[in-house]
Amino acid sequence: MVSKDFYPDWGRFAEMCVAIMRVDAGRDPHDRGLQDLVGELSTRSETVRRLWGAHDVRTHGAGTKRFHHPQVGELVLAYEELAVTAEPGTVLMVYTAEPGSPSAERLRLLGSLAVSAP
To answer: Which secondary structure element, helix H or strand E, spans residue 5, and what is its range?
Structure first.
């Protein structure tokens, strides 16, 4: 499965990822690992080149994301970013499904598939 299949809103997801990388680049403009990553991605992807050049810098603390899981289908999950204060720059992403929703049922199914997997 390729990322464009897993993320039905791939264009929006790519924009978010690059904007978050810009935030990290602003926090530590001398981060060689991040510079190398951006360089490599930019040489391989027109999308990354375009998005990086747009200079969009923002975090995405909360919202909704859609995923297409190959075993259970579409999942619509709310997410919230929680800062880990003991480790600056580290965040915990929490994803939840609306109780009683098809996504909640699919998450339960996915959990049962994981338990029964060898």
So the answer is: helix 3-6
4-19: pLDDT as tens digits? 889 999 999 899 899 9
The pTM (predicted TM-score) of the whole model is 0.78
* Tokens at 87, concatenated: 């480790």
Cα–Cα–Cα angle for 89, 35, 28, nearest 5°? 35
Radius of gyration of the chain (CA): 17
Mean pLDDT of the chain: 92
Q: How far apart are CA 73 and CA 87, in angstroms?
A: 35
Cα-Cα-Cα-Cα dihedral sign, residues 34, 40, 44, 46? positive
